[in-house]
# Entry
Amino acid sequence: MGLNILSPGRHHMLTKFQHDYLLKLVREGVDGQKVQRILFVITSANHENTRRNPIPLYLRTLAIDRFAEDLECDFKIYPVNDVKPTDKFAEYILRQIFYQSGEKLTSKNTILACSTPPIIKLFLKLGFKNTPVELVDSERNIYSALRPYEIIDLLVRASGNWRKNSAEWNKYAYSATVKVYKDYALGSLIIEVFQDSLLSEDADITETRDYHTYVQGMDMAANVKFSDIKPFVVEGKIVDVGCSTGSLIKLLAEEFHESDIIGIEAVRRFYEYCKTQEYKNPFVFFYRRNVTNQNFKENTINTFIYSSVMHEVYSYLGEKTLRQVLKNTYKQLNYGGRIIIRDVVGPDRPDDLILMKLNDKNGLSEGNIDQLSTYAKFFRFVKDFEPKKITFSEESIGGNKFIKISRRNSYEYISKMDYTDNWESEMHEEFGFYTFKHWIEELERQVLRLLRGQNRFIIPIL
# Structure
């Protein structure tokens, strides 16, 4: 029996260097042993549409298949789902291969081909030898060729010119990868993902959110949201922007059987979850897109739904981007279509000062956030709230303690004080930025801008 070469990686970009390197191993052998097969392990196989993992599994598999056709030996491809960082990652890969194929890889029949020092160390602990591919010196971070992510960076820099043969990334990418990228417009997808300013490299809005409790809260409110929204929906193409787990999509699909129901979701975990669910309307579609972009052609959508989305756009990207979202939405709206915004609204006369009496007996004066009294929690809020400085003063009237504070700032605290499971995340988000009157003025301003150039009837609904 010959030797196996184990090549683990995300395999989003296959390079000319990698192909030449592996072909040389096959032709010359390793330590006097003939190479029988190359085993490509695609890690993070269940991820796509993120900066860390931009390309879906089926296209990575297609590119590897074409890449390996002329390597002059057998090959296999094993998808391996993402796991949290663990010092047993090498064992996890080996067991995944065993449970997928029944094949047991050992240090006697397999050698690693890897340029990632942490992965190399994990396999070395199990006795596997490594052939280093691009790696020259791990301590001094020296490599003999550009690594795949560096070539992807070249593609992103090429922007609109990425398809041109003269684009620099073409010099380093293997021809099979180049063809798959061009055939499936992957360069455009990657550029869009990398330019998404709302999300982290794993396509999450914030790293501090507990998605389990967040999802529970969103799903429990789905029926209430739907009852609010249903009377205003115009059938046809209905878009739920920021659709989260798809709970509202399910209810829309049950009610509007003849409509296309389209979910737009930027967060990877939610997007992947939505695709696994069943919907009573077969015409349900999901896109992982930046909600701030114009994602559809003009005059094509009958109903846009923004449920608990606008305050996140404002909080993370600012008022200018919020206005751009509204502008893009109106452009895409069909004649007689509707925009439904279900979101937080700040209090009238937001700058008026009020006296706020807070309970100091229903919890501790210090400790974990979920153990604090309402009074003590206020001072933690003042310290943690990111969008702006919270100004206030303390007053004593008739032996009672009061907080003298603006309506707007009191609203920010009261609207967040019970969200202790996601406290850090909530401290980045501002709820009371627009009063109801301000929302109406902003929506009308967007409508009037468009009506100057178009004969168009739009109903803004809050």
